[in-house]
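1st attempt posting a full record on here, be nice pls
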Amino acid sequence: MVLVDLGRRINSAFAQLNKAPVIDDKALDSLLKEVASALLESDVNVKLVAGLRQKVKAKVKTAIESGADKGKDLNRKNIIQKAIFDELVQLVDPGVEPYKPKKGHPNVIMAVGLQGNGKTTTCTKLAVHYQRRGFKSCIVCADTFRAGAFDQTRQSATKAKVPYFGSYTETDPVSIAAQGVTKFKKERFEVIIVDTSGRHKQESELFQEMVQIGEAVRPDMTVLVLDASIGQAAEAQAKAFKESANFGAIIVTKMDGHAKGGGAISAVAATKTPIIFLGVGEHLHDLDRFSPEPFISKLLGRGDIQGFVDHMQNVTMGNDPEKQKEIQKKIGEGKLSIGDWKEQMSNIMNMGPLSKIASMIPGMPQGMMDGSDEETSMRMKRMMIICDSMTQAELDSDGSSFIIYERPEKVSHKEKEKEKQLGKPVDINIKRLAKIARGAGTSVREVEEMLCQYRMMSNMAKTVGGKNGWLQNIQKMQQAAGGAGRGLGPNGMPTPSQIAAMQRSMPPGMLNQMRQSGSGLQDMMKAMMGPGTTDQDMAEMQAMMKQMASGIGGGGGGMGGMLSSMLGGAGRGR
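the predicted structure (as tokens):
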């Protein structure tokens, strides 16, 4: 992904700083040299990089002179890292608030940019984004310069179920734009997106045309669509568009590629214009809202919890709320059918690539899971195909229909059903598995593996939900602590007295079970990492988990500290 190498280089520089025995001017200069080199290689403008070095040095010097470091190297490391983090945020944050569409009246958005930067696709993505948030959105294709532009708009808009306007016969883009905006305003559309021709700063005629379209439609916001791979040319092109179209926001496309991406940062600084979205894929929903601080946080492997929550909300927007509530209720009761499990797999696939989700989790650097997305997606698709080969009765079952039970021969039908519930399982129904395998075009072994995966998830649901399950016990513990979120201590964690009350509210044996599981964490980690795991591998995994815990807990012990207090030290390393 774009800028992943930059994040790795900066993290590597931070790691070298942490290893330094003494934090002095020499160590700071070495760190800044590495960070500056990484930024320059990512196509960030040299003047911006030089400015960043000077600002970081000034900030660190001021902090040390004021006594903020208290003479300790650890504090100096934190001061330096925070100064670099803040300056990186400033690079992508011009401090200008972009226009926000308002419901109830027409909001005209005009897209401009170089040819081939992905304007037409981005216009459709933008229309879908606002449509999912309750706006009545549409697209006007005013690109008469590129052959096939209107066909592309028509196809993508039809697929997204977004109304569109264009013409095969009219050659004047200003006339098309004006007609389309007038038409959609009369029909009370709230977001009207005008797609214009791609143009270069040296093409004066096309730039004049863009100005005329702007005068005709009077957009509430003009958006510059910028390719992440544009490189050092970004600054000059962005300035030319700013002078002619005075755009108020930037959308950076092709962020899922392997371009360096620093040119987009240069464009922000050169035009003092905020980035509002990132194009992260080819699909209609692959448009992420941009926020400076979470973006840099994710870049440096510190995660983006707010982005993760927003992404989950976007995914659930397209789902049936009643169906989701029903599945949540079943999990709460400890019941999960094969059909419910299939529904959850479908939701997971809608979340997008696992590497994208992993990059939002604190402690997991970007690129950690690159390469595994395609394989995981294929496995999940095959499991869903196997589920599609089952009958409705099999999907509604808990897997018992694939098991042969021991029961007496000479009994009535009702007694047979009773014996089926009480009898011991003696074998697997191979005939039924073979039938499903034929329907799915796979092997019996793969069907068995799919059922094993379901059984693991079903057992987890039983452990979490049901009577005396984890969900009920956690609710009891919260009530004992005075209710969720009430009167909590520092970092949002329970106070010692609340922890003691939670311990007393636990069911008998639950605390011992947690203590025993604490001693087996290393075994579980080894099983997850596979055979051939060395002590060094284990140490690295534990370090990563500590980093994740500190990121989630806020640096004050967090969840790990609370568990250690509850378990009486069982959660600590032995």
